[in-house]
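FORM 7B - TANDEM STRUCTURE REPORT

SECTION 1: FIRST PROTEIN
SEQUENCE AND TOKENS:
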Amino acid sequence: MRLLAVFAAAGLIFVGVWLDYRNQMARAGSGPLDSTGIAPAPAESAALSLGLPGHRADLGHLPDDPLAGFVEIGEGPFLMGSDPDIDTLAYDVERWSADQPRGVVDVPAFLIGRSEVTVAQFRAFAESAGYEADPRVPTGPPLHPVSFVSWPDALAYCRWLEELLRESPATPPELRALLADGWRVTLPSEAQWEKAARGGDGRIFPWGNELRRDRANFATGGPEPVGEVACPECPYGLSDMSGNVWEWTRSPWQPYPHDETDDRERLDGDPLWVMRGGSFADPVRNARAAIRGAAGPDVRREFIGFRVVVAP
């Protein structure tokens, strides 16, 4: 599949470049990657038996707090996109339109994971559901962000987690009530992700307008455990909205202006899906809150992961 690269890889930065992923994999000697295979669930899940302090083994290693690691993002508008007069590092694909660099988007309330989905959480899903994950999915450390996951892999995890939260007696009452009211566990939309990353004030980075190397894991040699890099100035108390791993969204790649009701229109048979946030391998330009990348659904890389939302 094609990969719209707005990230650093092998020491190079590609912006707006289309890469042929299938050809890459063929040259590397890799066979087809099955993202939907199901095998019988094992009798006992090693991941589910992990003892991780502060996490619930009976809820797939979600955090042990009143919302199981989810954070509420209130209803309301925010500034989406980049004004190059304010953000000199902005790419053209972040510009709202030729006449309007940024737009106001009103987003209904939703919950989003405080952290990226971890190795322990994804492996609990794979082992419980008998899901054939790519063999490159890390086996540890358990609190690192999971990677080498495709877009269908991420959606399969969301479906499993929703079922678990609906059925488990350990689910926090507020979450249970929202799910009973029709809310779903899924990937964030591009607008939900950006609002959660930058709040309502249009800041350049999740922590503000000035570069800080101590607020995100970017331009380094590898991922850190989720939440390892503190960001007290980041809105909503979320971690790793810049760096660590790129995060899949449920939005197809389309030019701005963003229109949530237009997500299924003007798409050909081979859409790309938006990724957000940059990764440990990226330069500062890709650590900004408005950065946009995209990839084909079957792309798996060491610097691509995801986080989830609970939303109407």
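SECTION 2: SECOND PROTEIN
SEQUENCE AND TOKENS:
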Amino acid sequence: MKKFLTVILTTLLLSTPAQALPVQEAVQTALTNNPNLQRTEQSIRVAEESLKSARGRKGVTVSASGSINASKTEGVEDSQRASTGISASLPLYSGGRLEAAIRSAELGIEISKLDFSQSQDDLIYQVATAYVNALENLATSKVDYETEQNLSAHERMIGAQYAAGAKAKIDLLRAQVETSNALQTAARSQAAYEVALTNLAALMSADSIASLTVEDFDTHLALDDVEIYLTEADENRRDLKAAALRIEQGELDVVSAKSGWLPNVNANVGTDFSAASRRWHVTPDASAGISASWSIFDSGVTRAEVESAKVEVDRLKLALDADLDGVHESVITAHKNLRIALLRLTTTQKAVDLAEEERYIATERYNSGEGILLDILDAEVALSTAKKNNVSARYDVARYSFDLAHAVGNTLKAISNA
């Protein structure tokens, strides 16, 4: 079983040809294929049709009507009557209701476009994060595989020394146990990497991804003061802009509700044609005029609608404040995490150098008969831990840089610079 796992890991990590998939290509594939993003884009078309409908209500409405009637009365000649008519109506004044509806529909298009842009940025961030996670798992699996190979080499060396009578059997048994444990760890790391690839493929709407190459992201970042990023987030975040426009829509709803207290004035023109069977002489009839209607009392319905619209505006304003607080928290958190990750990157690289020196000394002392096996095993574990900490720090820098870019609303720029 041990040999079988070793062959499988060797095949996966060394023999499988790597697929060059830059993060920019992964993002572009997701933007093209992701069905959730395509569904969000359709909302723009819905909003555009809503604007056409709102504008249409302010224009001329033309209607046609017609009827044919027949009557029969005992002792009286049968009679038929036919009539048809065309009428047109144009709203002259609606108390601001129609104008508010048009402006609200225009804002709806802007909101839909902002929502779509925000969805794009969210998807880019999700792909970038999944990509970094996959690369981190790949790099971790390589470290675990290297540790297993090192321990296997120690096991073979101790086995040869045991066969020559130079080492005790307990040393050989311990070496075999540690090699087996390292093999299990490497297998789990490989499985985690394959799961990460599956998650990335799902975001890209791709069937599968064969493999990735270990990609180096820029780790020499110069962080500005957090206030600069907070200002950038206030200016760039599309969801905040959309929330502000929704407040404006809510204020227009207040105007529309108040129109219930005002009159409606319409201009009307029409013409009718009628004829009876006795003469079948067509009689034209034309009319034109202006009509007005005004609801004097509606049992408080309009007042309730106005108050409801005002409360909704207050709710939207509170929601915007909460969203702004959430965005600021995301910016501050990402900024702190990135700063710490940059510090960790320096210290973990130093730890790797020290651990490699420790392993070399422990191996030489053991081979010369001055050290014990535990020193070698501890040194291997320390080196593996140091390397994986360095991997974690390196990809945390990439991950938190994407976190910060997404928090300020500009993930695409970070991807372009990756």
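SECTION 3: OBSERVATIONS ON SECOND PROTEIN
Residues 27 and 247 are 33 Å apart (CA to CA).
The chain has one domain: 30-416.

SECTION 4: SIGNATURE
Preparer initials: ____
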